Amino acid sequence: MDSSCRGTALPFRFHSFVSLFQVLLIIQAAVAQTSNDELRQRHAEGYCAMYDICGARSDGKVVNCASGSPAVKPDELLSSKIQSLCPTITGNVCCTEAQFDTLRSQVQQAIPFLVGCPACLRNFLNLFCELSCSPNQSLFINVTSVSQVQNNMTVDGIDFYVTDDFGEGLYESCKDVKFGTMNTRALEFIGAGAQNFEGWFAFIGRQAPNNMPGSPYAIRFLPTVPESSGMRPMNVSTYSCGDVSLGCSCGDCPSSPVCSNTAISTSNNGAKCSVRIGSLKTRKRSRSFRMNPFLDTADGGQSHSLNRQKAENLPMQRLEDANQSSTVVRLSVVQEYMSNFYRKYGLWVARHPTLVLSLSVGMVLLLCSGLVRFKVETRPEKLWVGPGSKAAEEKRFFDSNLAPFYRIEQLILATIPNPLDGKSPSIVTEENIKLLFEIQEKIDGIRGNYSGSMISLTDICMKPMGEDCATQSVIQYFKMDPSYDADNRLEQVNYCFQHYTSAESCMSAFKAPVDPSTVLGGFSGSNYTEASAFIVTYPVNNALDKEGNETQKAVAWEKAFVQLAKDELLPMVQSKNLTFSFSSESSIEEELKRESTADAITILISYLVMFAYISVALGDTPRLSSFYISSKVLLGLSGVVLVMLSVLGSVGFFSAVGVKSTLIIMEVIPFLVLAVGVDNMCILVHAVKRQPLDLPLEGRISNALVEVGPSITLASLSEVFVFAVGSFIPMPACRVFSMFAALAVLFDFLLQVTAFVSLIVFDFLRAEDGRVDCFPCIKASSAYAESEKGIGGRKPGLLARYMKEVHAPILGLWGVKILVVSTFVAFSLASIALSTRIEPGLEQKIVLPKDSYLQGYFNNVSKYLRIGPPVYFVVKNYNYSSESIDTNKLCSISQCNSDSLLNEISRASLTPESSYIAKPAASWLDDFLVWLSPEAFGCCRKFTNGSYCPPDDQPPCCSANDSTCGLSEVCKDCTTCFLHSDLHNDRPSTAQFREKLPWFLDALPSADCSKAGHGAYTSSVELQGYENGIIKASSFRTYHTPLNKQIDYVNSMRAARQFASRVSDSLKMEIFPYSVFYMFFEQYLDIWKTALINLAMAIAIIMLVLAMILVDLMGVMAILGIQLNAVSVVNLVMSVGIAVEFCVHITHAFSVSSGNRDERVKEALGTMGASVFSGITLTKLVGVLVLRFSKTEVFVVYYFQMYLALVLLGFLHGLVFLPVVLSMFGPPSRCIQVEKQGERPPVSSQP
């Protein structure tokens, strides 16, 4: 989008401006020409070449008389007038009062463009003053051809001799002067973008046909005069833009010595070297940008799913015989307390299973009652931006004091690349322009239904001038009218690509220039005819109240817009062999809602796979004769129900206290908690099954809880802890997710040790009574119970034997140990290096369904757009009173500080690769000061009664129906608002500023005064309360360079904030940058800090192996290209808790085993290796693998890839690297030999 989309409506007739400057000595059109000999010119001092006005051409342009008469002494009044505009003209003159009035009325149109640089303006005026009124005019002007009009000889062509020194001085003083409203050079408007003074003179001197803008006669600028002619070139002294007496701003004159003393600031202070964990600091200009608050980014439907690991603890050594020596384990105080608690608790639960089950389930159901207040948060700004966010506060300030950023509806049409060379043909053809008109006709016909009212585009679109929509499209060069120049469309657009700023015929329907770079894509430099894409943008009014009528009307129209694009526009465009993509402001949110159901089947299958695994894992080895009794399907199903209750209890609790849920919670947390619950269920059931059947069931339950209860408790609490750490993340979606997940895991643990233990009691009673699983009312034979009497002496399984007899011995070899340690250390070091390549951000395409129409749109945005997002530098509490110096701290025209805000922005735009600022800023303050300047004759004017008088080309001075406007009776007595004597150093007083600012903001721009502020700056100044001398909020608009990758958005925001902070400190004013995407990308400024703080808190209690798993996981992220964002940070934090499971059980088994280190490793792998592999690795693996088939890439990238890497890394570190490290550096055993004197107790007292 260009500045016009932000309310800039400047109906400049730029080409005609310059043409009028060329018509300063004018004569009536005639039919006959005479030769130069017939002119009888006299080239001598004190003689004129042209004098007086002899009439007007048929198109109304007045023309001068060809006359070689002597210069005339003017009367005192005329002399005073001439001196005020042309101080180099003294004594006699070669212009009448009518000629001078014509000169003054025309140059006043150029003054607003150049007044910011007095040296340029003075040189520019001198050129036309010498041409029009110099008493020695004949010395440097030679009339080469004449025409006869009404018997008068009128000028038809002249040679104007001007030295190269003057031409070069004029051009050098003006070449960098900016026209603030359009963020571009003034020469683009009054010189057709000339690159040297020859080009500028050639533009000025072109003769125009009737009724066309341009000069009525040809002016040939020549540097040398003919020999023996008696002439000499005009060579009035020029002023340098660096001249102190006529000083220009730094933005208009970078070569000024005042400006050269101010060093260009960079984002780094000094030349110090810094190392930052994050993306590598590379410089790359991105090529495209989509200006949409969705942004880039910021999406409300991210998902967080994590598989948690649990495993069985080492079975404690049971006492053998009273008279035999045995090994026992020294217990810590905590472990001994927990063992005693679980011993008593297990006995009580086994004796009262119904009571425990009823109480535990009843409590959870009570918490679920909070679901009556259940609400889901879907607004992206509420999901991804914290309430204390600096960017959010700045956005609220901007929206409430200036204006909310507009909504964007956009279409992109592009040609298909040639399959042979891969190049895309140009889209600028007659047929494709006709297609744009057909599309526009359908867009105009859209009607959205809002509460029975039919909403059209004209009802909601942004109208800078209050009439026409500010649509950005190539067909604006035809005023959006299909009949406009219909026979020559291709020639018209090609002409407008080069003259969009100067030709009135190229002005848009909303009376503003349309920059080709905003409506075309796929071109390089300014080769617009090579463009391979049309970009059509519809800015729509936005509102602060997202639920209000205005917003809902826009949403209703946007739904109809998207439907039309899918049903009609897409096939229409594709039939022309073009590609088509589209988006509306509400598209992101609507597609994210659809995403929530897109993977329902995938998630359901994942749940079913895990449920099937539970049923198999909890039961015994399948035997056809007793499978229907030994299976644990009903127990597994009951366990799944408990997991769901824990999730519902968590959601119910937070709903009751007013915390809104998210779609992520409902999709991911059940999967996460189910994965965690599976481990606990397996551990508890297997622990009970390991107990000897000769013990009563209550003894087996008690022993099992003593054996695994402490480890389950500590592991679950560690997982609750790492989830709770995630609640410190400021992003609401991730914080809420972590809170819900932490409470759900806690409830799941409590239900596992209460309700599920009760269910185990019921299930074992069922099996021992020979009742069929799932149908406990049916009783089978008692053969099963009899066959299981010897369960305590069962042989180890195949996996356990492999771990003890194959895996452990191989790892015990010293060569293998050295190889394992070297490999894992090398991979960890490589991962540390790779982790610096992780880029912050979350690609928009990843969070959307793969079949979303926005996928193609984002690809085209990245490929074709050539404009960056607007950025506003907002100034708070600007003191405009005459006693304050704030004005000079901000402005960039004459007498402003060299280090002012606008001058600093201009300097920053010279280094866009580091500042990410593409252009100098459009300044309402500069334009306002110029607007009320006495030199701007046609701008700030007043009637005799003191009220505002508009320019002569606006009503009531000029009727809207008049084709030409002159001095009218209505406005003939209008005078400028101020004389120079009324101002102090060209600055208004406090009262003058206060009175005229509303005039400026209400004034319509036109040819006679292009600096008027309506449209361009309507929403740039907050007038509420400004009467006290303080403007609460005002903004200065510029643009970022094109941003494509996520890292570009982050770096541009960082650079803008650093720039604003430095300037604020320097000027002692409060200034901040604002762009629509800042709110969503602020999280990434400190994402590394957030990640490291949270990870440091989570790993404070762990050592080498867990840190290596974490570092290696980050290395894998870099290899897979996974970005660092809130989703991956939460995953990394939770991976610490999961990594604990892979290490703690092997380490614990090693610590309670006896023998040397190698023997203890072998024993630990033999007893716990199989449990870690089957109970933890496989549990997570079966659930994670299903996510590979998700339709949403965010599941594939952040859950399948990341979790699969975590499971595999945890397995390798826990079962390969950790055993090797323990065999080499492991701690001594905690086992001691004791002599037992008593009988073996019926229930083990050892943990």
From TrEMBL:
The entry's protein name is SSD domain-containing protein
Family stated for the protein in its record: Belongs to the patched family.
Q: Does the keyword Signal apply?
A: yes
Mind telling me which residue stretches traverse the membrane in this protein? 355-374, 600-618, 633-656, 668-688, 736-762, 811-834, 1092-1120, 1132-1152, 1164-1186, 1198-1222
Q: Where is the signal peptide?
A: 1-32
Where found, per UniProt? Answer: Endomembrane system
- Which keywords does UniProt give here? Cholesterol metabolism, Disulfide bond, Glycoprotein, Lipid metabolism, Lipid transport, Membrane, Signal, Steroid metabolism, Sterol metabolism, Transmembrane, Transmembrane helix, Transport
- Every SSD domain range: 599-762
Which PROSITE patterns does the entry mention?
A: SSD
**Top-level taxon:** Eukaryota
Question: What membrane topology was assigned to this protein in its record?
Answer: Multi-pass membrane protein
* Organism name: Hibiscus sabdariffa (roselle)
InterPro entries per the record? HMGCR/SNAP/NPC1-like_SSD, NPC1-like, NPC1_MLD, NPC1_N, SSD
